[in-house]
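Demo today. Your pick:
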Amino acid sequence: MNRLLRGAVVQATVHTSGILALRLLAQAGTLLLVARLLGPSDYGTFAGLSALAVVVGAFGTFGMHLVLLKEVSCSPQKRNSIISYALATTVANGMVLLLAYLALGQFLLHGFGIGIIPVVSLAIAETLLQPLLQLASAEHQARGNIPLSQALLGLPLALRFAAIACIWLWHPWPVLPSYSAAYLLATTIALVVAIRSLPESWPRPRSWRLPSRANLSHASGFAFLNLTALGPSELDKTIAIRLLPLGAAGVYAAGTRVTGAMVLPVIALMLSALPRLFRGAASGKDTGLLRWIFGASLTYGSVAAAGVWFCAPGISWMFGNGYEALTVVMKWLALALPAMALRVAAGSALMARGGAWNRAGFELLGLIVLVVAAGPAVSANPRAGMPLALACSEWSMAIVGWLILALNPWPQDRQQAE
């Protein structure tokens, strides 16, 4: 039975990896074109702005997409009751976050000369539209349509790549406002496609309802962990533009985008395993899946780190003039890759086992380590400081996350021990 279960997860992982591979190609193409068109300095500013939007937008659903995933995975008949308050929460919360991002962006990026169009476009896309897209994707994932769920999340990336390719060919001026407007349009189109792809239509707004206190309490842990999960991999770019010259911040941001994309196979693995982990947690049965996930994640992360180390000069060459320092940055970032893979796996497993606050706790620890380590590390070594701070953050999360999993048995195992 365990072998059949792992085989099903492997098969789903392969299919999902195919979708994520296309997503990776779109991300890579967009990254290369945007970075080359903007140059290190402007790209560093844009990366900090977009990273801040993604982090703020991570709170957009208030965890409702994960509640939807968990509940519909176990009881599909609960879908209509959950989606009615999930939509109301997401829209109301998104409006508040939109205003918060505009104020926060103005404060953090004052004096960088970004302009209003990029800020507003990113704000609407990430705080209002992307959370709604997450709800649609989560419903498909809960129903077992994992490749489709990821294809929907990857659609905005593909459309953004098409947009930046057109900008590359036609060279409108200025580039950043043009791409930012296309960024918003791509997310809008993807949301429309996602809504139309659902087997059951979303209820009309007049049927929405506010969540009860119990609903909010259930979602609060998921909401916080959705925020902390993105923090170390996104906020570092905003920190970098405050600690480094803009050119160096742009080089660092490009490097972290490459290494972040390298963990997509582990994300595919956990997306495929998550419904089964939810059901395993509900039944209290440890199928051995976690031990297999740990081994696969560590092995893949180590191989990916070696690949990044040896391919760093070629990656730097692909980015073009101004990114020569990327070779050194990529080699330092390779130290964090095994930990990134383990952190992603531990976070998903903890969430499935009802340890949302445990996951949020170890990811908050990673954020604290990143913030505390970044300043001294950059002062000691401006080129390697941010990669080393990120590596310290990722390894602290990976170690603590898997220790929590190892020291806390599954419910059925705990009862037998007692």
In short: Confidence is low (pLDDT under 50) at residues 1-7, 411-418.
